[in-house]
Design a protein that fits this description.
This protein is mostly helical. The chain contains 10 helices and no strands.
Amino acid sequence: MKSRTQKFKSNSSESPPMFQNKILNRLTQTHIATPIIIFLVYAIGLLWYTEARTDIPVLAVVGLFFAGTLGFTLTEYIVHRWIYHPPHGASDKYKEMTYNMHGFHHDYPKDKKRLAMPPILAVIIATLLLFLFELVLGQYSFAYLAGFVTGYAMYLVVHYTVHMYPPPKNFLKALWVNHSIHHYSEDEVLFGVSQPLWDYVFGTLPKSEKDKKHAVEILK
């Protein structure tokens, strides 16, 4: 992880092209506000549809919404830990794929155009999730997915903020410290970006105070 720290100290605010094709490379970049707005509007539409086309009680809709948000935080952890960070023994092709999805971000963490999944891909995945959730949950899927995509939007807000702004002098500073540990000290811990809940559950908290001190020094 030492090389990553060195790169963080000397890297520019923009990473090199991921693909030689200009159009393909442009599709890997996005302004952070674009997906946030898309998914918040999508969530509002899903909630409107739930209210207009179903007979689900309001309290149940609220419960489904927050269940979806919690479900996203678990998905965030699972994807980050077991998909974005390939396990030992993974094939070279799989490692190359995960590098394009996430390792590139580890090498160039200050590139604000690559702090979110490309909107086109994100919308495709959200649409597939709608069909999947509807198959499993029926009419309850819309409110659940509204919470799920709101969770993703909030994740993007946190991820962008911890990379682009200095940490605050309050309890939220822990989010900056945690993500700095993951990026610059030990990438096999702290897979939760928006919150550390599932790191507590699955036991992937930092193994030493040295990592925490290192992260604090980087943030200064």
